[in-house]
Model the fold of this input.
Amino acid sequence: MSERIADRTMDEDDPISGVDTDWSQVAQRHYEPEESGELTTAIIYTIAEAEGISPTEVMSPPLYECVDTAAVENMFFGTDVTGGSRQGVGMVEFQYTDYLVKVRSDGWVQVYEPTETGLS
Done:
């Protein structure tokens, strides 16, 4: 199954994007370093979308207390020693307040919220 978002297709069956049953995706945004500015901005906008607030209201805790966005941006989207762009594959995940945030090397920033589990 694929979901079309902002002229990009994200494969929901991709094992990298597989989600623990305790989390439900509530927002996502595709980050393009050549066009989108800083990774920090993409993460803040995605968290704001998940919370239903303006990006300027995402303030506490400061994002830098949860993740080193400069390191993630350099690792996935920076240049290698030859000056070319990195082609690594991976994902970084961290918790921001009650949300699980995933940053994938393909540019997807995804925000998940915990789900209620039914009692049997």
